[in-house]
Amino acid sequence: IQLTQSPSSLSASVGDRATITCRASQAIARYLVWYQQKPGQAPKLLIYSASTLQSGVPSRFSGSGSGTDFTLTISSLQPEDFATYYCQQINGYPLTFGGGTRVEI
Amino acid sequence: EVQLVESGGGLVQPGGSLRLSCEGTGFIFSSHWMDWVRQAPGGGLEWVAHIKQDGSETYYLDSVRGRFTISRDNAKNSLSLQMNSLRVEDTARYFCARVSPVLGRTFDVWGQGVLVTVSS
User: Fold this and answer.
1) Do A35 and B107 touch (CB under 8 A)?
2) Is the pLDDT of residue A10 over 90?
3) Distance from C-alpha of A71 to C-alpha of A46, rounded to nearest angstrom
4) Strand A101-104 and strand A9-11: pairing?
5) Other beta carbons within 10 Å of A41
6) Are A48 and B46 within 8 A, CB to CB?
7) What residues of chain A lie within 8 A of the CB of B108, using their CB?
C-alpha cells in the first residue's frame, strides 16, 4: 500500500493553521498513524486510529479521515511544532510510511 | 523509564555483514511485538522487519528478505537484526521500535537509532 503525503513541505508562521494530507493507494479503514520527527531525534507517536491523540499530545493536533484520505491538522502552530510529519498505514505488511511533510518557518 | 537502546552500527563494505542489537528496559520486553525501521540520510522512514513476542512469526521488507534476519532473546530483553550481503542502498539509521500492545501495529516507543554505512 503506497501512501502519498502532500505537501512535501510547507512554510508557515507561529499561530498559523497547518494541514497535511495522506492518501492511500487502497482503502485502509482507519488504520492510519501519524508521527512527528525533529532533526536528530526518533519519531514520536502523535495520532493513532486516524484520529485518536496519543497521551500527552497537545489538543491543537487533530486527525481525520478513513478509507483512502486522511488529514493531520495543527490548529495553531507553535515553535516546537516545526518538524517533519509522517503518516503510516498499519493495515497490513509490509507496513509503509508516507514520504513526509516538512513544516518549516 | 521505558527505553530502547540500539548498538552495533558502523561502516561496512558492500557484501559485508553487520549485526544490530537493541536492548529494552523499563517494560516487559517479552510482551511486545518488535520491529526495525530505517531512515536513509535525508530520507523518509522505511519499515524493515517485524517479530512476534515469542519469535514464532516474522515479516520482512521485500528488498531485505533473505539477507536480513530479525531475532530476539526475551531472557536478555534484546532484539537483533543480522544483516548480510549488505548493499550501498542499505545505508541508513536503523531504529528499533516497540509495537503498542493495544494500538495494533503502532510504534509507541522508539530507540534513538544506530547508523549503518555501506561503502567501499
Assistant:
1) yes
2) yes
3) 13
4) parallel
5) 12
6) no
7) 45, 54
Whether A44 and A37 have beta carbons less than 8 Å apart is answered as yes
Give the pairing type, strands A61-66 and A69-74: antiparallel
Q: What are phi and psi of B76, to 5 degrees?
A: -110, 10
Cβ pair A42:B112 closer than 8 A: yes
The residue whose grid cell reads 482503502 is: A27
pLDDT digits (tens, 9 = 90+) for B30-71: 999 999 999 999 999 999 999 999 999 999 999 999 999 999
Residue B102: pLDDT over 90: no
Q: Which three cell numbers stand for residue B7?
A: 548498538
Confidence at residue B113, expressed as pLDDT on a 0 to 100 scale: 98
CA-to-CA dists, residue B20 to A8, A20, A36, B65, B71, angstroms: 31, 34, 25, 16, 10
pLDDT at B104 over 90: no
Q: 527505553: which residue's cell?
A: B3
